[in-house]
Amino acid sequence: SGSPIAWERDAEAVRRAPQALDRPVVAALARCVPGDIDRAAWAIAPARRGRIHTFIATSDLHLSRKLHMTGEACCAAAVDAATRARSCTDDVEFSAEDATRSDLDFLCRLVEAVIDAGARTINLPDTVGYSTPAEIADFFRTVIGRVANADRAIFSAHCHHDAGLAVANTIAAIGAGVRQVECTINGIGERAGNASLEEIVMITRVRPDLVPVETSVNTRELFAASQLLSDLTGELVQANKAVVGRNAFAHEAGIHQDGMLKDRRTYEIMRPEDVGVPQTTLVLRKHSGRHAVQKRCEQLGLTLTRHQLDQVYRRMVVQADRTKHITDDDLLDIAADVCGTPRQRAREAALHEAGYGFGV
């Protein structure tokens, strides 16, 4: 989606999207202003499935300090926008910005009026990440229960991460009846970001007993999508980011590595290949255990006696305390020194074991 009124290139991008996208809904964002609605309608005109997503703030704080507008004027603008948008497309979404800090009686009246005007998706954002999961669940249950025509619309959650609760709040909203969630790959977005798409999707896959909903997301493309977005935006993904961070499937502590070698389920609730990560990584650092060192040596084609393994392990710990991380080359150097094997022979043996041949 884009905001066609904000920038000419946004308008052109939305209008051209159907040339590359057939199945997804192409949405255009518009304030509750006639000119915005008309520009959005122009932008989505070529789309097989086009949506106008119109929005206005509804909290007393935003109405008084930002919009300088009464509640009655806000409601009238929202209804007019939904009506105008519906005359252009059957797919209209309405968002009440700062909904979770809005007066509940006023919000329910406005939502009912907007649904009557033609909106078929009602998005109630936690715009500043102010709510907790219990509050969000109670909020959506209350609104859906009090709005008389709620059955004529799909309710949507849009949670921000200011207090670190965006994903938790989104999952709570799903439990309260929400059937659309607005989220982003890598959790990118204003300030601290939005709810992370990959985390939400994988929670539904890992805990279907608690979140019994399905999506059509191909989870095996999550890691690739994350990397692509990082390349395009220049924003690196933090190492310990859930699901797609480089440490999400990396195990350093010896007790974790030992458990992983015996049964991966001891320390992984999802398989790396299910999200497009090539494999689990046993990271060799000073807290790593002997079993992990032995396993990596075997993977590198090195056969060590118990005494040699003990020596390699002790030297690895000493070096890791100094360098923080042990590479395969480091391990091969240590093993060659311990075994009295020329470094090149150790390397060639490791490559041969991994399937790389040597010849003329």
How much helical structure, as a percent, in the residues? 40-55%
Order of helices and strands: HEHEHHEHEHEHEHHEHEHHHH
Q: How is the largest sheet built, in terms of strand order? A: 1-2-3-4-5-6
State the secondary-structure class: alpha/beta
Q: How many H/I helices?
A: 14
Q: Average pLDDT across residues?
A: 90
Number of strands: 8
Low-confidence stretches: 353-360
Rounded radius of gyration (Å): 27 Å
Shape: elongated
Question: How many strands, which pairing sense, and closed or not: the largest β-sheet?
Answer: 6 strands, parallel
Query: In oligomeric terms, what are we looking at?
Result: single chain
How much beta, percentage-wise?
5-15%
Rounded to the nearest angstrom, the distance between the terminal CA atoms is 56 Å
Provide an overview of this structure.
The structure is a single chain. The protein has 360 residues and is α/β, with parallel strands linked by helices. Helices cover 47% and strands 11% of the residues. It has 14 helices and eight strands. The strands form two sheets. Strands 1-2-3-4-5-6 form a six-stranded parallel β-sheet. The protein has a two-stranded parallel sheet with strand order 7-8. α5 (104-117) links the parallel β3 and β4 (121-126). α1 (8-20) packs parallel to α2, α6 (133-146) packs parallel to α7 and α12 (306-323) packs across α13 (328-339). The N and C termini lie far apart (56 Å). Residues 353-360 have low confidence and may be disordered.
